[in-house]
Amino acid sequence: MVSGKAVHFIGVLRLENKGAIALISGVSTSAPLLSPDLALDARGVARRFGARWVLRGVQLQVRAGEMVGLLGHNGCGKSTFMRIVATLLKASAGDCFVYGSDVKTAGDDVRHHVGFFSHVPGLYDDLSARENLAFAATMLGFPSADIDAALERVGLTHVTHERVRGFSAGMQRRLSLARLILQRSRLLLLDEPYNNLDVAGIALMNAFIRELNAAGGAALVVLHDLVPAAGVLDRTVIIRDGRVHAPTPDDLAHDGASPQAITLPAGAAGIS
Amino acid sequence: MFPAHPNQFGPPKPAPAWLGWLAFLFFVFAQVFSVVTSPADAMMGHLQKNMYVHVPAAWVAFGAFGVVLVASLYFLWRDDERADLLAASSAEVGSLFCGLTLVLGMLWGRPTWGVWWSWDARLTTTLVLFLIFVGYLALRSFVEDPHRRGQWSAAVGILGAINVPIVWMSVQWWRTLHQIQSNPRGLSPVYLRGLLLNVAAFTLLTIWFIWRRYEAARYERAAEHAAQAAALGGYNA
Amino acid sequence: MAFSDDVRRIRAIVWKDLTTERRSKAGFNSVASLGVTILVLFGLALGPDGKALHDAAAGALWLAILFAGVLAFNRSYQVELDGGALEALLLYPGARWAIFAGKLIANLIFVTLMLVIVVAVGIVLFSVDVPATWPRIVLIMMLGVVGIVSLGTFYAAMSSRSRAREVLLPLLLYPMLIPVLLAAMSATKALLFGDVMNEAGAWMQMLVIFDVIFLVATFLAFEYVIEV
After folding, report:
1. Is residue B83 within 8 Å of residue B75, measured between CB atoms?
2. At B41, is the secondary structure helix, strand, or coil?
């Protein structure tokens, strides 16, 4: 299976990069080798809120070019994990690397790589669609980005100059997607990306994910329903009891997917 | 293989009991000595003896906030949670002595000046300092996340400590320019000896208090770390 | 990250903050109205004796600016908290101090505009004779506003994201601003009465010292405060 080859591939890379990697990972001698070809490398990421431990040591590796679905019950810590990877939240323990950059110490490098599609729109209500994107483009460091093309792609050309305050939830999602398109990130973190999107919106989202995949980018997608993501994901994992597991067929059936809809490689929990 | 928590330290070094006893006995000695040896003041009579608690309390209050400044800077520099706990302990003890200074100042001001409060530069600066650190402690109680609490309160502590000399200067100018009589008089050597003795005794007491409070804070944090280890246990297996 | 990129980001944040503020209007109008209302209340508390009002004008003016300004600082982060915009803002690459600089400049403009209205009303209500030295008063007002806004913008970054944000900001901010208030009130008052004791210059120096120290300190500390 594909995954077997992939594991082998990582093993080869690790050997080849040993010298270079030792320099980067000087933090801890016992830690596994770092590979910048891993889009995401989470090692024992833990997070508590007050006395409650939401994540208890998440191990997850996502290769460049890999699309991974993240399942789990409400409150299992999926969003918490995404926010830690995006540098929005600090882990209480554990390490996490994005393309070899430590989220704790090299946050700015991580933010250059990561595109986070959160479940909140993150838009300014009193700016128009175009103004929101222009602001985002400047902040991203692409002041000359093609905003009109992005707006056209998400189908919002008819409301370019209207304020976001009057937008429906789905339109706001599309505008957030347009911002994500401007961003050209190498690791997409999508937190329930299909919420509020109509069928055409879901198709748009999937087209975007595939495009990024073709360019060698990776994605981690939080889902409650696997159906819209059919054919997009390479594998899925599930967070249960604060840790990452390979999903059982029951988990998948529970989430409404036919087992054929996704590939389910062995060792999906990531650590070899 | 699970990495140790970067802020996980062994059990704190307990404050030695002899230090507590020494501080307490020295304090009693200093108080008795200074009260017995000092004659009644020509103008203030025995009211002068308030000085032996008021001035040392003020001194240690400002000293404790110096500790907050240094510990906060160290925390931001090294991200060592022990520094955060030391700053918090020091701020609590410092606020206590700051409050004591204010109350004693008022008790002294009433018979001396005929008013509970005069806008004396030192007293006013002490009041402002007290308010700044009430804010510091309030902030700590309003923030749940330990790391965020450490960083925020370190910033507030450093800015507050920087502000103390500026506040003092501004209140001083404000008074002199408005020509309000300030508290005059130098200090005669008869009183100075007792005062210095008490400053030393208060300093020792404060070190003891901060150390005890810090010890307790470390145990509280150690319990949190133990909860973490329990929550993460089984992962290594 | 190139410095020109940071400048572009600062400009974008200033533009964004002022545009959203201008379009919602309610914010500025209500904050400025509050400033005026506080002045009226001071007038009622101190008046109707013309001399007493005249003497207290400088103090009343600065307190009105301070009390109304506090609302502006929390508001400036409220815009970011609605709809999770702060999250997006923190996810953009680049230096975090640029976010502080942008918010600081936007708040400076906001509070200065409010100050113009409050001062104009104050001159009328407290029957202030504008002295010939008014340019120096304007300078003192600018220095005072810089002090208030730099600390206000800094502390609001914490208070707006904590529990009890309404009470926490004044609790942290007011004691810290005592030197600014003393200096600004004293200097304004001295200049209104002809600066007979020649004290305004010294107060102005104190304002400059305060502003420089706390601008540097807040810029350095902001990264620790905005970090999550």
Report:
1. yes
2. strand
CB atoms near residue C36 (< 10 Å): 18
Contact indicator for C135, C78 with CB cutoff of 8 Å: no
Return the DSSP state at A49: E
Interface test with C, best of A123, A139, A161, A164 (most C CBs within 10 A): A139
For residues A64 and B46, give the distance between their C-alpha atoms in angstroms, rounded to a whole number.
81
Distance in angstroms (rounded) separating the CA atoms of residues A87 and C105: 26
How many Å apart are CA C106 and CA C16, to the nearest integer? 9
User: What is the distance between the alpha carbons of residues C139 and C152, in angstroms, rounded to a whole number?
Assistant: 20
**Is C94 in Cβ contact with A108 (below 8 Å)?**
yes
Provide the 10 A C-beta neighbour count for residue C158: 24
Nearest CA in chain B to C159: B139
Report the residue from A120, A135, A163 with minimal CB separation from C12.
A135
Chains contacting A with at least 3 CB pairs below 8 Å?
A: B, C
Confidence (pLDDT) at B228: 66
Smallest Cβ–Cβ distance between A118 and the set C13, C16, C87 belongs to C87
Residue carrying structure tokens 């003497």: C55
User: What's the one-letter identity of residue C202?
Assistant: A
Q: What CA–CA distances, in Å, run from C28 to A123, C71, C116, C166?
A: 21, 10, 12, 18
3-class DSSP state of C164: coil
CA angle (A62, A67, A69) in 5-degree steps: 90
Amino acid in the structure at residue B16? P
Bridge partners of residue A3, in order along the sequence: none
| Residues C61-70, mean pLDDT to the nearest whole number | 92
Calpha distance C125→C117 (Å, rounded): 12
pLDDT along chain B (237 residues), means of 10: 47 83 90 81 73 88 94 89 93 94 87 82 88 92 85 94 88 69 59 86 93 90 72 46
Domain boundaries, chain B: 46-215
Cβ B231–A49 below 8 Å, yes or no?
A: no
pLDDT score at C228: 64
Write down which chains contact chain B via at least 3 CB pairs under 8 A.
Answer: A, C
Strand segments, DSSP code E, in A125-258 are 187-191, 218-222, 235-240, 243-245
By C-alpha distance, the chain A residue nearest B227 is A51
Count H helices and E strands in chain B, helices first: 6, 0
Residues (pLDDT < 50) of chain A are 1-32, 258-272
Q: Which among B144, B197, B175, B161 is positioned nearest to B64, based on CA atoms?
A: B161
Specify whether the backbone of C82 is left (phi greater than 0), alpha (psi in -120 to 50) or beta. beta
Place of tokens 């093609």: A146
Tokens of C175: 């004691």
- Distance, in Å, from the CA atom of C10 to the CA atom of B111, rounded to the nearest integer, reads 57
Question: What tokens were used for A153?
Answer: 């792609």
Kindly provide the residue ranges of all beta strands, DSSP E only, lying in chain C, ordered along the sequence. none
Q: How far is CA C158 from CA B198, C126, C166, in A?
A: 40, 36, 12
Q: Do B5 and A93 touch (CB under 8 A)?
A: yes
Asked if C35 and C64 count as a contact pair (C-beta separation under 8 A), the reply is: yes
Provide the sign of the torsion angle of the four alpha carbons A236, A239, A243, A245, taken in this order: negative
Q: What is the pTM of this model?
A: 0.83
Inter-chain CB proximity C20 and A163 less than 8 Å: no
Order of strands across the sheet with A235-240?
A114-117, A187-191, A218-222, A67-71, A235-240, A243-245
In chain A, the residue whose alpha carbon lies closest to the alpha carbon of B8 is: A93
Q: Which of B2, B144, B147 sits opposite A50 (nearest CB)?
A: B144
Q: Which residues does A192 contact at the CB level (< 8 Å), separation at least 6?
A: A119, A222, A223, A224
C153 touching B (Cβ < 8 Å): no
Q: How far apart are CA A176 and CA A181, in angstroms?
A: 9
